[in-house]
Design goal:
globular; 36% helix; 8 helices; alpha+beta; GmrSD restriction endonucleases C-terminal domain-containing protein; 16% strand; GmrSD_C; single chain; two-stranded antiparallel ribbon; signal
């Protein structure tokens, strides 16, 4: 069953989802100045269609090391005191979601968000990529494209860009803008005009 706003507040009252002082952050988040330069360098164009798109064209989660796949690697990176079993599944730990300020103690309550969603990437240039390049994008651990967040918050985002969806926690908007811009820049993806305007607004909050 999906968590609702009411149930999140109730869980918070029970002490199972509470604000944490800090969270692990994905690598290579650019400075504000760098993000603004990268945004200015992005090609502005109308979004393409979703014709031909499927998540299977972005193979994930792939094996990273031993028994650990990309999802499990990010869970360990972004969590606190994470314990895993022999199959690399997280059996305990805590995860702070910077999108909404909640902390979860069950890995099943956490999604690994593709900050730039796979469908959004498809519409903004990835439709012409090879499957290998799409796989690299979908499992990008070297850039700030993957982050552990509350599952139903990630589901509410879907494949929307910042013109249509922003994290509920407004204090994270600056960081979210920098991450989104850098991922689009790193992977040579385009932005549409409304998206660029929204990103400019996010970076102006930094």
């Amino acid at each position: 069953m999906r968590k609702t706003v009411t149930s999140l507040l109730l869980v918070g009252a029970l002490g199972l989802a509470t604000a944490a002082p800090a969270s692990a952050t994905p690598p290579n988040i650019p400075s504000t100045a760098t993000a603004k330069s990268e945004l200015a360098a992005l090609t502005v164009a109308a979004e393409g269609s979703l014709t031909g798109y499927s998540r299977e064209k972005f193979p994930h989660w792939i094996t990273v090391s031993g028994a650990c796949n990309t999802r499990e690697t990010v869970l360990k990176r972004d969590g606190s005191n994470v314990v895993t079993d022999s199959s690399c599944a997280a059996t305990s730990g805590s995860w702070y979601s910077p999108y909404d300020g909640a902390t979860w103690t069950q890995a099943s309550d956490v999604d690994i968000d593709h900050v730039v969603p796979l469908a959004e990437a498809w519409r903004s240039g990835a439709s012409s990529w090879t499957t290998d390049r799409r796989q690299s994008f979908a499992n990008d651990l070297g850039n700030p494209q993957l982050i552990a967040v509350t599952d139903n918050v990630n589901q509410s985002k879907g494949d929307q860009d910042p013109a249509r969806w922003k994290p509920p926690l407004t204090s994270y908007w600056c960081t979210y803008g920098k991450i989104w811009v850098h991922s689009k820049y790193r992977w040579g993806l385009k932005v549409d005009s409304a998206e660029k305007s929204a990103l400019t607004g996010l970076l102006d909050r930094c």
